[in-house]
Design goal:
Length: 513
DNA sequence: GTTACTGCGTC
DNA sequence: CTCGGAA
DNA sequence: TTCCGAGGACGCAGTAAC
């Protein structure tokens, strides 16, 4: 009887992958390991080295792992298959007392692992492997190990919606094995993604003639239909049919037997304007009272692409896919133009109607599953505020040793003091990180475990997309997608924006109270 | 029963 | 979701 | 250009604790 691959082999590879910053070296290390794996082990190894369990999230928290209190094994004996079976068992526990049972199962697994293996398993389970390689590098490694072209492997994985099975097929049966991974009904494909453009003008400049569409602020949905059978998938390819019965019904009624649609679903107010995102979000991942909530907050799907209609359309140009789509389903508001002025007007119209912005698509482009290319561009509009930094949290990973995540405050001219509007760590260069760490420590007024509180005197220009109602912050409001544009050392606190200004933006955006 | 907290998925 | 850094 | 990782805001589900 052959011995299976040891967990140690994977943990050691992960450690070495993390140790180098060179992409090719990472690829080589992973490819070498894949060459040694057999059968199901291939799928397990691919999942682990992509930073996840085959079972997905299995409900093991940071806290569970820290309260284990088990010793490490002396010798590495755990096989990949053992670990995979243990994960399946752990994921299956539910109900009252489940946290204790799960903890016991995790403890037993960990007691059989060496110290290094324990470290690897911990990182894997909390999703913090941070070896500088995820699915992108994995695809390259699979291609290398199977001696196939990267494009071939990537396409199969994206159309299959999953790398693990494709990796196994590629390694076991090569080119022939990948032939099965064509688009197929009820097997979701990775949705095509977009890059950002500054404004409508840049999008037209990039694309020439472009297919413009409203960008709606809801959730991405992929609908599969064959006859009466309909399944709706989310962006992460979860089956969300149960939570969105009205979408299922709408798709079932479409005049085509077999199709796959791509679109965005959101809830509209009675006047046709969109609900704020956080309101539409009440429909996502929902199990309780679906029939009741669908009456209060019905979801409306807006379709913008057709991937399959009695056959594969992925490789057809966008213009043809959209034309076919219009014959069978209600489509998103759209405009085909090469005129920058018309594009700008279209953007203004979308914004005026309460939407997020527009998309601009290359009419000649195929549906590049899972790719974030320049064939699709998104144009949104950010707002900015000058805010005061109230505190900063110590960073982790490559930001360890630097003050990173910033607490943002706006002057409250009524109550005095500052209203906290959330936090951001985005938009900071290494230079800014170093600067703020230095400067903040000079004006420190207090600290706790992870946070340094500072005198409220540093001003930063903060970009954001929306103001949301916040159940978390005392101010009652929080910024959505906040990021730092620059520090305003030229501005005093008295010159910053006030909480009262923020409230006005909120009322404008949310629709008033 | 109700609340608090964490995990997960959406953006 | 956004951004900056590295290859 | 592509990939990665630094983490942000919500809301719901599920358990544990009260």
């Amino acid at each position: 009887m052959l011995k299976g691959m040891l967990l140690e082999r994977v943990a050691e590879t992960s450690r070495r992958v993390a140790a180098t910053t060179k992409r090719l070296e990472k690829t080589d290390l992973i490819a070498a390991l894949l060459g040694e794996a057999r059968g199901e082990e291939i799928e397990i190894a691919v999942a682990f080295l992509s930073g996840r369990a085959r079972q997905g999230k299995i409900g093991v928290s940071y806290r569970t792992l820290h309260n284990l209190g088990v010793n490490a094994a002396e010798r590495a004996r755990l096989e990949l298959m053992d670990v995979d079976r243990a994960f399946t068992a752990i994921a299956g526990v539910e109900g009252a007392g489940s946290e204790r049972v799960r903890g016991a199962l995790v403890a037993h697994l960990f007691s059989r692992a060496t110290a290094q293996e324990q470290q690897f398993l911990s990182a894997l389970l909390v999703g913090e492997l941070r070896q500088g390689a995820l699915e992108g590098i994995m695809l390259e490694a699979v291609a290398k190990a199977a001696k196939l072209s990267l494009e071939r492997v990537r396409h199969a994985a994206m159309v299959a919606g999953d790398v693990t099975a494709v990796a196994r097929a590629a390694l076991e049966t090569g080119e022939a094995g990948l032939a099965d991974y064509d688009i197929r009904l009820f097997r979701p494909v990775q949705p095509m993604l977009a890059q950002t453009a500054e404004d409508a003008g840049e999008a037209i400049e990039d694309l020439g003639e472009a297919a413009l569409e409203y960008k709606l602020d809801g959730a991405r949905v992929q609908a599969h239909k064959s006859g009466d059978q309909v399944v709706i998938f989310s962006r992460a390819l979860n089956d969300v049919s149960a939570a969105s019965p009205e979408i299922v019904e709408a798709v079932r009624a479409l005049p085509a037997k077999d199709l796959i649609l791509d679109g965005e679903a959101l809830s509209l107010k009675p006047d046709g304007r969109p609900q704020p995102f956080q309101v539409t979000a009440r429909r996502f991942n929902r199990k309780a009272d679906v029939e009741k909530i669908r009456k209060e907050l019905p979801l409306t799907p807006f379709w913008f692409d057709l991937l399959y209609l009695d056959g594969n359309l992925l490789h057809e140009p966008q213009a043809r896919r959209f034309a076919e789509l219009q014959k069978v389903a209600p489509v998103i508001p759209h405009l085909r133009t090469s005129d920058a002025v018309a594009a700008r007007e279209f953007l203004e119209e979308a914004l005026e109607r309460g939407h997020e912005g527009i998309m601009a698509k290359a009419p000649g482009s195929e549906y590049a599953t899972g790719a974030r290319g320049r064939a699709w561009l998104k144009v949104k509009r950010a707002k900015t505020l000058d805010l005061v930094i109230l505190a900063a949290e110590w960073g982790s990973g490559r930001r360890k040793g630097f003050l990173s995540n910033l607490h943002l405050g706006a002057r409250d001219t009524e109550k005095g003091g500052f209203a906290m509007l959330g936090k951001t760590f985005k938009g900071l260069t290494d230079e800014m990180l170093a600067w703020q760490t230095r400067e903040f420590l000079k004006i420190e007024i207090a600290r706790d475990a992870n946070t340094v509180y500072v005198e409220p005197k540093i001003v930063a220009e903060i970009a954001f997309n929306d103001v949301q109602i916040s159940p978390r912050y005392a101010s009652g409001l929080a910024l959505r997608f906040a990021r730092v544009k620059r520090y305003r050392t030229d501005k005093t606190v008295e010159q910053t924006d006030t909480f009262q200004t923020v409230k006005k933006i909120a009322v404008g955006g949310i629709g008033g109270e």
